[in-house]
Amino acid sequence: MTLPPADPAGQTGPSAGPAPSGGCPFAGYSPDSMRRLFGPEAEADPMGLYEKLRAEHGTVAPVLVADGLPAWLVLGHRENLDVARTPSRFSRDSRRWHAFQDGLLGPEHPLTPIAAWQPLCNFADGAEHKRLRSAVTESLARFDRRGIRRHVTRFADRLIDEFGDGGTAELIHEFAEPLPMLVLTQLLGMPDEFGPRIVTAARDMIQGTETAVASYQYIAGALEQLIARKRESPGADFASWLIAHPAGLDDDELVQHLRLVLIAAFETTANLIANTLRLTLTDERFRASLAGGQMTLPDALEQVLWDEPPFTTILGRWATGPTELGGQQIAEGDMLLLGLAAGNMDPAVRPDAARPVLGNRSHLAFGGGPHECPGQDMARAIAETGIDTLMSRLPDLRLAVPEEELRWRSSLMSRHLLALPVEFSATAAARARAGSHVPGWVAGLDPDAPPATDAGTGSAPRATTSVGSGDAQVYTPPQPNGRPARRPGRLRAFLIRLLSR
Ligand code: HEM
User: Fold this and answer.
1) What are the C-alpha distances in Å from 66 to residues 8, 35, 53, 339, 439?
2) 136 lines ligand 1 (CB under 6 A)
3) How high is the pLDDT of residue 193?
4) Cα(415)–Cα(409) distance, rounded to whole angstroms?
5) Whose C-alpha lies nearest to ligand 1, atom 39?
6) Of 446, 469, 464, 444, nearest to 454 (Cα)?
7) Is the CB of 367 under 6 A from ligand 1?
8) pLDDT of 174-210, one tens digit each?
9) Measured from the CB, is residue 238 less than 6 Å from ligand 1?
């Protein structure tokens, strides 16, 4: 998992520029003969491109990435695991890349933001990796599942309430994207009112817009304040546990790892929710299996993790010396891209890709080896509980446009659904809100007090003082679709009024 840089001024995503003609051969391949992972073909149909590469080269293919830099795309399921599980041959330290050593990646290069080395567990190997990762994994392990699910239900309910009366919604911006971030800010130990601002800032930062730097600064500032506050008065939350961890992360490492967790969880979990919702809304067989009890929601999520993994590709690993993989001669300092989506479709493990993969979790969506995603259980819990809440609240949810009108955006590492417009019966939504589905956390809340921040521990909600709320009022990140910022607490006040009638 790679992260946008501390200063995201540079563009992220692949360049659409032409591949250079001529130039040095790469392991005997001339750049002219190598397929590009950027540009119109790659953006229109990345899976089709992977299959062409598999047919031409087998399990490991030479490709060109942004600005025509050569790399290896690993297409085989076994070969992806070999690379991920053998850090002695394939390092996570991007400083080994000859393109960096040859000065080919300046600050403006499109890959610099995601490939430049940073003091993070996902750029470290060996003992340093263990030290940094143990702080993250052991702090994540302290959450109890019921506590996490309680937060997810609470935020899912809140988002559904916000669009419930209209009978229509756009599920990417109004549900799939905000839900993971709202939950994460809570688990990190931030007060409620930070959630919506962080969602907007993170989306803005990842998209590399003109305000990306301001949005990054907002997030970094909020995280710095969070650390300062939690050092003074620790709570039962991820930030406090990370600070107290015996690995002894310094302030910079703490901010960077909080940021890693926020960003790692945001786009990926949003993609998982979006892709699973899309499948349930468009695939009749799938919906019928779910409704008929032949398939459970967890089964559906695993199917999506096989067929449409949130990361299609991971950048990357760097060869520690000359080696061989899938019949290709890899040179020291070459970059390898883990082809997670391609590996999941490898005919060696899925001879019939149309067959459901019920009960089989050996997909590559969460990587493998020492860097395997430590947040996967949390991602599954957020996606499953969120979708379950949505489907129970709005049982007649349906797509509002023909399936063919759905649009995607592909980049080097992922493929996103741009919008998922839906409609549903507004009366069902209103009934659900007024009825038994009003979550327990609402009862007895003071509209002016933020709810629980004893994140995911299952403990009772308690009021907290907000972290840097003054600062949050100074900077309001850009709002999607130019809409005015929603006033935090409005919904809660409405529900309390409703309940006290
Ligand atoms: C569906 C959602 C998610 C997907 C598909 C996903 C995928 C991945 C993958 C493929 C990697 C390995 C990268 C590599 O091998 O270089 C990774 C690493 C990581 N993920 Fe996730 N992730 C998800 C959600 C989360 C969540 C919710 C968290 C935290 C709460 C998280 C935290 C991390 C961290 C900290 C790493 C770096 C681990 C290391 O380098 O040792 N991820 N993720």
Assistant:
1) 17, 12, 17, 16, 48
2) yes
3) 77
4) 6
5) 371
6) 464
7) yes
8) 999 999 999 999 999 998 778 788 888 877 776 666 7
9) no
Which distant-in-sequence residues (6+ apart) come within 8 Å of 405 by Cβ? none
pLDDT class of 234 with cuts at 50, 70, 90: very high
Q: 81 C-alpha to center of ligand 1: Å?
A: 15
* Whole-angstrom distance, CA of residue 133 vs CA of residue 300: 30
Give whole-number Cα distances, 257 to 98, 99, 224, in Å.
Answer: 27, 26, 12
Distance 122 CA to ligand 1 centre (A): 9
DSSP code of 369? G
Cα 265 to Cα 86, 181, 222, distances in angstroms: 25, 7, 17
Residue spans per domain, the chain = 31-499
Which distant-in-sequence residues (6+ apart) come within 8 Å of 213 by Cβ? 7, 8, 9
Nearest-CA residue for ligand 1 atom 22 is 373
Backbone dihedral angles phi then psi of residue 422, each to the nearest 5 degrees: -130, 165
CATH superfamily of 31-499: Cytochrome P450 (1.10.630.10)
Residue 457, both tokens = 């521990």
pTM check: above 0.90: no
Total residue count of the chain as it appears in this document: 501
Distance 204 CA to ligand 1 centre (A): 20
pLDDT for 426: 72
Whether 378 and 265 have beta carbons less than 8 Å apart is answered as yes
Residue 209 pLDDT: 65
H or E element that contains 346: none
CA 359–ligand 1 middle distance (angstroms) = 21
Q: Is residue 328 lining ligand 1, measured as CB closer than 6 Å?
A: no
Query: In the predicted model, what is the mean pLDDT of the chain?
Result: 81
| Residues 17-34 pLDDT 10s | 334 444 566 888 888 889
What is the spatial distance between Cα 379 and Cα 143, in angstroms, rounded to a whole number?
A: 13
